[in-house]
Specification:
The protein is α/β, with parallel strands linked by helices and 229 residues long. It has two domains: 111 residues, Rossmann fold, CATH 3.40.50; 107 residues, Rossmann fold, CATH 3.40.50.1400. It is 42% helix and 15% strand. The protein contains eight helices and seven strands; from the N terminus they run E-H-E-H-E-H-E-H-E-H-E-H-E-H-H. The strands form two sheets. A four-stranded parallel β-sheet has the order 2-1-3-4, with helices on both faces. Strands 6-5-7 form a three-stranded parallel β-sheet, with helices on both faces.
Length: 229
């Protein structure tokens, strides 16, 4: 019996490097799942949108949000389009997860002083369900690194990044973002002289490729949703 298709849905970005990073992640997932039809969709900015991408898939499908937390896009957009088809299911978002903390720690290893405090910059959402997810990844990163981890939001919530950095003038900024785009540019502006890590997928621009833990995580989300049916 054929396995369900995997529809990987990200936010979408007008940043060329950010879009390329997401596409490379999806391609790596497809390489690892040769028996699964893997497609890509978006909730904003890029095409095809999630509804159109889903309509183009015949048969059962698992929608995997390439999103780091709960929020409007997960619960309204993706669960909304999945609800319209009996053979579609939406998996959980990617975060929080120890694999994301692993990649964040790898990013931090090459930036700033090893014992500096860290301000973890997350995108932020007005959806209350995003708050425990942001706090969860901060706790996972704190556990993994043993460093002071302060949380800051790039939109919608407080403390914002400038406020958090004012309270930790020797901090490194860790960006909890998949790829380059609006929020990374905003974080870089607010960071000013503070060292800042690249986004999680930024290895696309080096010869190291997409981090394996991120590929593992997307596949894990797909396989869990597949098993739960």
């Amino acid at each position: 019996m054929p396995r369900p298709a995997l529809l990987a849905v990200s936010h979408g970005t007008s940043d060329v490097d950010g879009a390329r990073s997401i596409a490379a992640l999806v391609a790596r997932v497809a390489e690892r799942l040769p028996d699964v039809e893997v497609r890509e969709g978006f909730v904003d900015v890029q095409q095809p949108d999630a509804a159109s991408a889903l309509a183009a898939v015949d048969g059962p499908v698992v929608i995997v949000p390439l999103l780091l937390s709960q929020g409007f896009h997960v619960h309204h957009d993706l669960h909304g389009v999945a609800a319209g088809r009996a053979d579609a299911v939406a998996a959980a978002p990617l975060g929080p997860d120890p694999l994301l903390a692993e990649v964040l720690a790898l990013r931090l290893a090459g930036v700033g002083e090893p014992d500096s405090p860290v301000v973890l910059a997350v995108a932020g959402s007005r959806d209350e369900r995003s708050v425990p997810d942001a706090e969860g990844i901060a706790a996972l990163l704190r556990e993994r690194t043993g460093r002071r981890i302060d949380l800051a939001y790039l939109a919608a919530r407080h403390p914002d990044l400038p406020t958090a950095l004012a309270a930790a003038p020797d901090a490194v900024v860790a960006t909890y973002l998949l790829g380059r785009g609006f929020f990374f540019d905003l974080a870089a502006r607010h960071a000013r002289a503070h060292p800042i890590t690249p986004p999680l997928l930024d290895d696309l621009l080096t010869d190291q490729g997409i981090p394996d833990p991120l590929v593992d995580l997307v596949i894990a989300r797909y396989e869990r949703a597949e098993a739960e049916g």
